[in-house]
Amino acid sequence: MKQSAGSAQSTDTFDAIVVGSGATGGWAAKKLTEAGMSVALVEAGKKITAKDFTEHQQPWDVPYLGLSRQAMLKDRPIQALCGGCNEYNHKWFVNDHENPYTTPDDKPFRWIRQRVLGGRSMSWGRQSYRMGPLDFKAASHDGYGDDWPVTYEEMVPYFEEVERYVGISGSAENLIQLPDSVFLPAMPMSCGEVALREAAMKKWKRVITIGRAAVLTKALNGRQACHYCGPCNRGCVTSSYFNSVTTTIPDAVKTGRLTLLTNAVAANIVMADGGKAKGVRYIDAETKDERTVNGKVVVLCASTLESTRLLLNSNICNSSGGLGHYLMDNIFEGGARGTLPIAEGRPWAGMPRRPNGIYVPRFRNVDQKMTAGPKGKFIRGYGYQGGSSPQFDFAASGFGKSYKEGVHRAQWVTGLTMFGESLARKENFVEIDKGRKDAWGIPVLKISASWSDNERALFHDGQQQAAEMLEAAGAKDVKTYGEYSVPGFCIHELGTARMGTEAKTSVLNKYAQTWDVENIFVTDGAAWVSSGCQNPTLTMMAITVRACDYIVKEYAKKIA
Amino acid sequence: MPDLIHRRELLKIASAALAGLTTAKTNWAMPNELVQNVAKATDWKPAFFNPHQNDTVMVLTERLIPRTDTPGANDAKVHRYLDLFLSVGNADDQKRFVDGLAWLDDSSKQTYKREFVKCSEEEQVALLNRVAGAEKEKTPDTGHAFFNQAKNMTSMIYFSTPEGYQEMNKLGPPPATFGCEHPAGHA
Asked: What DSSP line would sit under A57-84, residue for residue?
């Protein structure tokens, strides 16, 4: 029975409840409703539409010219640290005082979140890379940790389905460590990037490719190709980058079987007698009233740590003792920059702004198991995001007319920043901090995570190799930069409810179904077994589609 | 991350010179009521500066980024934004700037026996020349520190205005499309 948004009656039972409306939750809602199921989509944040998008605002349209990063410190001291949180879109990010978490004093963690319809798909980086055979069987390759219970070959049809719908622009490179996606035409590289690509290929046969981005370069399903205005993280009225608000959620709504509950802060899963989940108890974000929505299947897509938090607060799904453990992120912020001696081209203000950079796929430990870097040996690897473009010299010396002239003495500023894999370790974990509750009375997480020697060694190797690649391209004034990123700050937090082959050592089976409660699925980053170094959202969406496929084709038969 | 993480480092590279503003101890609290864009206000009055300070800042910013063949700081109302940022800024930044303005007048009176705003343009430039050129020093003295702060803020604000965009694009319009157009290679 259809319900109006915001008021599900507790006597009705939906075929499925999906918690979270971000990249994965939107897909779950779409797939399950399209398959004929009634779905309640429980989203903690408020509803937004294209009217809330601000990508075409110019700096002089906002009070502080978009320069007021620190102006957001009052309500969002942690969120304001993130480059993607700005004067235009900061309201999509959580109020840190309402959504606290705790950490040990010596283990800082930065948890960057958006609570709004669409979740972090509203402001994500759009970089999209498949996890490959080297990742799904990482443990078989080098002996550390565990393999995934699913193979790359099993994932391929789901990658393809997601890519054909989402639209990933990029260039095929035929690399075993970074399988190609189904691609829309690639965005162009700049002169400096072409020079860098040629130098890396010539000296090491290393590939530098255009970023693989969930940004359309051709019209798709009524969405327009990107017109290069630049600030995707503020929304997009042409739906050119992928977020769930302009794609999967409208598809679900179109079926007539979606009940969208926004401002609904999920608190815990309600269990029936007999060991199955009955529904989700949530708190109205504004009135603080408690409600319950009932469903035959519960799919958690609340984001890695929120999904695990729900399970922990519900006291379920932990017969393995592993719930909350094996938290991972990507270590990043290390790299190198320099200036390329290119005579052509000059900088400009305004459009076109390409919403993408270049990408260097992992070249470490593809054939061998371990590499000796400048500060130690390491397994696994890292990729780079970066770019090269002519930049004004705002640091030109002097003042007055000569300063204005000096600003035009442009340079091809070129940089590469590494994004590295982090090893799954039991001692990186989250638990409930029973002494602390959020603004809705829900107990918060205590997050204990730190890097290991492997991440640190990998980081330093990444810096050194970045410098070498820039030098090979003839860059001048090459300098490495960066300190170890604070864990969590890459916003690729993964693990804590991992998949596995047996209930003793994992929380989920290969369909992202919890071992302990057969009608709960967790399809977001919490399911991950190893982190890889690739940006994870694409693979998360594929895992979600695969889980929904199983729910519709296999599990639904059981509960019909 | 998001874009959350996309090209965060590249943005840092591009604005390394303007680090004085965004990474410094500036701590602007967002005011409760909606702030109108100050450049467009028809009845603007400074929220932080007193009238003399405001007059000084108008002259100072115009010396830093003057009107040439393109608009300058006064055309872009840079002083209004400077006033706004300081009005919601932290006490340290406010003090440094106010002390700096006082230092500027002291320096001017010592040399020319009159306040900065009353000096000729040549005299004003000569005063500023004494404290320019120390942008890279880690521990500059009062005059140099103030100059760095004023120049960084003025530059960052100016190049975020329509006038600044006009200056940046004065050598020609942006390219119609993005990307390398040199199949034969580069110099």
From this structure: --GGGSTTTT--GGGGTTT-TTGGGSTT
The count of domains in chain B is 1
ipTM value of the model? 0.92
Write out pLDDT tens, residues A392-420.
999 999 999 999 999 999 999 999 999 99
pLDDT at A147: 98
Q: Point out the residue among A123, A335, A400 whose CB comes nearest to the CB of B4.
A: A123
Q: Which domains does chain A have, with CATH numbers?
A: 13-52+73-106+115-171+178-559 (3.50.50.60)
- Are A399 and B4 a contacting pair at CB < 8 A? no
């864009």: which residue's tokens? B37
Give the pLDDT confidence score for residue A254 in this predicted structure: 98
Find the residue in B nearest to A61 (Cα). Answer: B37
Under 8 Å between Cβ of A220 and A209: no
**Residue B86 structural domain:** 49-165
Q: DSSP assignment, residue A552?
A: I
Nearest CB to B4 within list A63, A74, A120:
A120
Chain B residue numbers touching A349 (CB-CB < 8 A): 159, 164-165, 168-169, 174
Partners of A14 in the β-ladder: A295
Q: Nearest-CA distance from A130 to chain B in Å?
A: 17
Digit-coded pLDDT (tens) for A511-529: 999 999 999 999 999 999 9
Interface of B with A in 34-63 (CB under 8 A): 34-39, 63
Q: What is the pLDDT of residue A404?
A: 98
Percent of chain A with pLDDT strictly greater than 90:
94
Question: How large a percentage of chain B has pLDDT more than 70?
Answer: 78
Mutation for A interface: B11, B12, B13, B169, most A CBs within 10 A = B13
Residue B181 lies in a domain: no
**Residues A368, A378 contacting (CB under 8 angstroms):** no
What is the token pair recorded at B142? 């009062």
